[in-house]
Amino acid sequence: MRKTEKRSDCPISRTLDIFGDKWTLLIMRDLAFRGFQFYNEFLDSGEGIATNVLSDRLKMLEDKGIIISKKYEKLKTRKQYGLTKIGINTVPIILEMLVWGVNFDDSTIVVPEFYERFLNDKESLLKEVMTSLEEGMHKNFC
């Protein structure tokens, strides 16, 4: 598993210890905004993540208490992933990064209605996303 040893007491450094690689942030994006719950969904997200990297990041996020996994009720050999309260608390940051990416590079793709909601009613959008995650609903927002 990727090391997440503490490099310093700086809060930004501590955050980067966990979220400092693209794969971890993309997994968080998929959990929070795309409604992904299963290993194969992350694997098939179009980003090209390797199976060993995906397994490593999911395990690290679970060990850190950011995500949780459980046996899928309909197929006990399958794991279902979701965000914990700590993981849900990253949603505002990831949302800001998503919108920053659109503003930085207008060739990126985002659902126009989602972007418009962010621009016109950010608080309501954020509340809807976080509430759906807290209630265990897995919606695709973008």
From TrEMBL:
Q: Which SUPFAM superfamilies match?
A: Winged helix' DNA-binding domain
**Keywords from the named record:** DNA-binding, Transcription, Transcription regulation
Q: Which GO terms describe its molecular function?
A: DNA binding
Q: Does the keyword Nucleus apply?
A: no
Q: Which Pfam families match?
A: HxlR
Q: Cross-referenced InterPro entries, in alphabetical order?
A: HTH_HxlR, WH-like_DNA-bd_sf, WH_DNA-bd_sf
**Residue span(s) of domain HTH hxlR-type:** 10-109
Give the protein name, as stated in the record: HTH hxlR-type domain-containing protein
Q: What is the lineage of its organism?
A: Bacteria, Pseudomonadati, Bacteroidota, Flavobacteriia, Flavobacteriales
